Structure formats: C-alpha cells, structure tokens
Task: structure prediction
Amino acid sequence: MFEDKISLLESVLGEATIRRHGTQAYFHCPFCNHYKKKLNVNLETGQYHCWVCNESNGSAAYLLGRFDRNLIFQWKELQGDKSLDRLVISYKILLPDGFIRLASAIDKDCPYYKRSIRYLLDERGLVIKDLEKFNVGYVRDGPYSNYVIFPSYDAQGDLNYFVARAVYKNMNLKYKNPLIDKTSIIFNELFIDFSQPIVLVEGVFDAIIGGDNFIPILGNSISEDSRLLARLIEEKPIVYIALDDDAYNYQTRIASSLYQYGIRVYSVYLDVGVKDIGSMKDRERVKRLIPSAVPYSGNLTERLERRFKECR
Result:
C-alpha cells in the first residue's frame, strides 16, 4: 500500500524496517546518526519523530527536502497534500553527509576531488586561498556528489545555509540548495563589515571574485522582509549594486528601494560583453569597476548614464 512512499524515503535514508501492519517505517536518523533505527515515519500521515534526538515534524516533506528539494514534490504527489504548494522549511542546517574540505583533502587522487578542483580553479578562476577562506568542499557520494559546496555562516560563525553548484554542464540541476527561506539569512554574514561599503551581487562566484564585503543575494531581488534589507537599513552603509548584465531592471528596483531608506546607492555597470562579475577572472579589473559606479538619485539621470555606457 505504501510501497512508493517507502521507496522514496529509502532513496535517501537507506533501508527501512516496517512495523505495525505496514504503517510505520523506521530508519537511521540523519540528525543524530544513532546506530539503531530510531527515526519513525508514519506512512499514513507523513509525520516523523526520532526517539533519540527528538527531531520531528508533521510532514516527511521537510525531511526529504533536507536532501533534495525535488523529493518534496514527489512526496506531495504521493500524499496528495496541496498545503505544500508554498513550503517554508525550518530546520537546523547541516552540511551534506560526507562533506570534505577541498583545502584539507587527503585523497587528492579521488576523481571527485580532481573534478572539483579543475572546475573551481581552471574554469571559474578561483584560487586555493578562496577555497580555504570560504571552506569550499565536496562529497564523494549521495545526492551532492558532482557538486561543489559553498557553506555560509552567520555573524556568530554558525552554519546558516549552503550553495551546491554542479561541476558538469549537462547536469539537470545546476544548483541544489537547502529548501529554507533565504530571506532569513545573509550569506556569509561572518565576513561582512557593515561599517564599510557593501557590494551586492547575484551569486557566490560573483562575491568571491569581487572580494571583501561583496554579498551574494542569491538571485536578482531583495525581499522587503529580508534580514539583509533590515541590516542595511539599520547600518546604512554605502551600497554598490552589481547584478548580472541582463538584470538592469532588477538593479534599478533594488537601488530605488534602498534609496527610499536614506541609503547612498551606486549602480555598477559591467564592461561591454561581460555577463557577470563571476566571469571576470581579472580581479584588478573588478576593483576598477567600483570607482566608476553611478550614484542613484531616484530620477532619470541613472537611466541616461546607462544608455551612454551601452552606446560606448
């Protein structure tokens, strides 16, 4: 009766032990890693509970989302639960099982290590110091194999998110990240000095190539209820916005929003033919973009300046 649910759960949790007339499945708990199968999943309701660490939730979708967001929708289909249409996941963030720091990896002959290093250093222009500073890593197997993993830490140094990027172009999912509300975090807040100018960029590679005080917003917009916006309003640093070359409208929208809160905002325009900062391997060239940024004043001046730069 519950074969499909069991199969889905076993794909990430390992072999189940089925009890109570086939309605209860027991697994090894991924939260506390107890040696016995103490994680109980009710196959009828989807509720789960670990009898050792007390980790629990009303829907196994939350559990599956820890491994792969796509599994959430598969569970939704099996459960027929329409309340999952706009899921907000809340759980303690953990790095993928088997996470290995690239900078301290011992087995440098491992194919996953070699591919990760080649992708990051040769294809994306990072250097070893970047891997050390940002604790970049990989895993050998599981849902995150063939991904490089960028952890994010809050102001206290605790893990609050991570970005996993595929190392092969033909992979179905380019990014595989935790299914949590990104508005609640500032990516690598630990490294940000809000008393100094801030540069907002779209992605992790943009931020690393950019340098100190570059914050990836993990997209092209900032929510009105985001922690990042609240911190910017509170601290009021000078803010430079340097989104991808095709995100001018989004860049203007963010600038307008910050400007309304009395924040000095500058728009950074990329050189002709440059897609994003992450593709600019010459970091000195990136630094030269900042002094040429255009101040946002809430009128047509910036748009005219943009037109001028496009026609150069």
Observations:
- The domain at 93-180 is CATH 3.90.980.10 (DNA primase DNAg catalytic core, N-terminal domain).
- The radius of gyration is 22 Å.
- DSSP finds ten helices and 14 strands in the chain.
- The longest strand covers residues 159-166.
